[in-house]
Amino acid sequence: MRLRAWQQGAVARFEDHAGEDFTVCATPGSGKTAYALTVARRALESGRINQVIVVAPTDHLRRQWAEAALGFDLQLDPERPNSAGVSLPTGMHGYVTTYAQVASRPILHRHRTQHRRTLVVLDEVHHSGDGLSWGDAVVEAFDVARRRLLMTGTPFRSGAEEIPYIRYEDGPEGRVSCADVTYSYAQALTDGVCRPVVFAAYTGVARWRNSAVGALADSDEQAHELGAEAARSVEEQAWRVALDPAGQWIRHVIAAADSRLTDLRGADTPDAAGLLLASDQEAAREYAAIVREVTGRTAVVAVSDDPRSAEVIEAFRSSEDPWIVAVRQVSEGTDIPRLAVLVYATNYRTPLFWQQAVGRVVRARSRRESATVFIPAVRSLVALAAEMEEQRNHVIPPPSDDSLDIDVPDREEPMGGGEVEFLGADAQFAHVLHSGQAYVPGDDSEPHDDYLGLPGLLTPEQTAALLAKRDAELRRGTTATAVAEEPAARKEDSVWRDAASLRKDITALVGKMAARTGMTHAEVHVRLRRVVPGPGSAQAGVETLTRRRDWLLGQVF
After folding, report:
1. Which of 74, 284, 397, 503 has the largest count of CB atoms under 10 Å?
2. How far apart are CA 250 and CA 204, in angstroms?
3. pTM, entire model
4. Equal CATH topology for 5-190 and 195-393+406-451
């Protein structure tokens, strides 16, 4: 495999490094897996090691590592249980395990490590700082390894616990982690390794009732009157109301995100997909039902209580299904390059989880691609979006002056709420965030429909105008009338533009007909081709596409 420039440099630095531990902090989507497997392959060929052990956060990532290793002629067993012996099966170069599996029997993994010249790859190494049990287990198991390669693609937590084998230096904020190789998101953007991300922020009015304050509506005026602390509480409660599957806010945002995804799939990325992240499994299933209701498309659901979740994610990875809904199953390390749209419908708000989530949609397959992330317009998320290109290290703050205790690290805790009756929430497009700047479309801004769906060609201003226009259409409940009148209102447009618009309309109408009749999308397309004969949509002319759209309109409305 041809390595990128940063990978080549990192391989050379690893091989020249004299110590046992080597740390790489590289942004999601930059190619850490390929880098680590290259290091392992070269170390095996040189005879410096004769075994590779990879430690990953989840079972799904075990399989992903093993599959990727095959491309480097490495056989890594992803299903080796703790009940297996110390010796490797014939023909295997090593195995892939999880932090939880190591923590359950660290002495076994120590025996496996010390009996051979072993390279240990600690993937998303910050997990070994998740409490003393995991950190101690990692040290007990792998302290005897010949070399340790520590990797992360996310900003480390700020907290009191040192991450094993990470080097720290004293700084003004406390002890700060140091990586041997750092490859930031900003560098990856410059190199074309990662997609640029546009954040579409949606505001709205949320209403709820509780015994303390009665009926409330979240607004800037109210926040100003309440004061900073109370305003934060109101904003977080409004966030919870907005994410309620029974409300209109989430439906509106899903429709807007699906509209963007349809643009991408109708252009030169027909396999583009969207990811909707939920806070819990019940919400995930309800969101999946909303996706079908709003878009006419069936969403794949990946949740932890499904024993087949790993297989579900792997099948989605290579399919052309448009949507996947998940809680934390697709948030870290999972490699699905076709993901290009993210709906952040979860209340997790730490930098660690945020960058893991956004990292799912940044992997570039060409320089013309971009990603769109739909978020609630709450201050904590807007701030994280504005700081996407900043590099973070693990900071261990010093004890406070008036206490012997160390500050509690920022954990990913769901927002509290108590007994609250949700009364409803609506949604409205607020602005676009790109490279830390906010863009709001003006009255004279052009929506640039001629570039619709061509990733990477729209400026942030054009994207803001386009999303604002789509939002207005959604709020007006645009349906058959707007679809039917569009070609007549745009006679001056070129033929290819008309055809592209018709194909988009047909795709949406096929979804509506499928939802109404219970037929699959494929069955609707077959029936459509029988009623209006001709070539497939990609080759059909404007006249054929118009007749097909009109027939679908007659069936749906």
Report:
1. 284
2. 11
3. 0.66
4. yes
| Residue tagged 């499904």 (tokens) | 306
Residue 170 pLDDT exceeds 60 = yes
The average pLDDT across 35-58 equals 95
In whole angstroms, what is the distance from residue 380 CA to residue 391 CA? 18
Question: Which secondary structure element, helix H or strand E, spans residue 481, and what is its range?
Answer: helix 480-489
- Domain edges within the chain: 5-190, 195-393+406-451, 479-556
What is the rounded average pLDDT of the residues 321-336?
80
- Spell out the alpha helix ranges (H) of 243-300: 249-266, 281-295
122 Cα distance to chain centroid: 21
The one-letter amino acid code at 73 reads D
What is the spatial distance between Cα 2 and Cα 24, in angstroms, rounded to a whole number? 19
**Would you say residue 557 has pLDDT above 90?**
no
> Cα separation of 2 and 4, whole Å?
7
Higher pLDDT, 478 or 376: 376
Alpha-carbon distance of 359 to 29, in angstroms, equals 7
Question: Reduced to 3 DSSP states, what percent helix, strand and coil does the chain have, rounded to the nearest 5?
Answer: 45, 20, 40
- CA-wise closest residue to 371 among 406, 411, 336: 336
CATH superfamily of 5-190: P-loop containing nucleotide triphosphate hydrolases (3.40.50.300)
For residues 15-43, average pLDDT: 93
Taking a C-beta distance cutoff of 8 angstroms, is the pair 300, 312 a contact? yes
The distance of Cα 317 from the centroid of its chain, to the nearest Å, equals: 13
Whether the pLDDT of residue 363 is over 80: the answer is yes
CB 357 within 8 Å of CB 384: no
Tokens of 67: 């599959």
What percentage of the chain has pLDDT greater than the value 70? 72
* CA atoms of 351 and 371, how far apart (whole Å): 19
The pLDDT value recorded for residue 504 is 79
- What are the tokens at 89? 């099966």
pLDDT tens readout for residues 425-469: 777 776 677 666 666 665 444 444 443 434 444 566 667 766 777
- 195-393+406-451 is classed in which CATH architecture? 3-Layer(aba) Sandwich (3.40)
State how far the Cα of 157 lies from the Cα of 193, in Å rounded to an integer.
25
Q: How far apart are CA 361 and CA 195, in angstroms?
A: 8
CB 357 within 8 A of CB 332: no
Instruction: Return the bridge partners of 97, or none.
Output: 55
Tokens (6 digits) for 329: 């199953």
Average pLDDT of the residues in 298-313: 85
495-517 vs 521-531: helix axis angle to the nearest 10?
120
Q: Beta partners for 200?
A: 374, 432
Q: Which amino acid is at 463?
A: T
What value does the mean pLDDT take over residues 523-537?
Answer: 85
Cα gap 302→334, rounded to integer Å? 12
Q: In the predicted model, what is the mean pLDDT of residues 364-392?
A: 78
Phi, then psi, of 435 in degrees rounded to 5: 55, 40
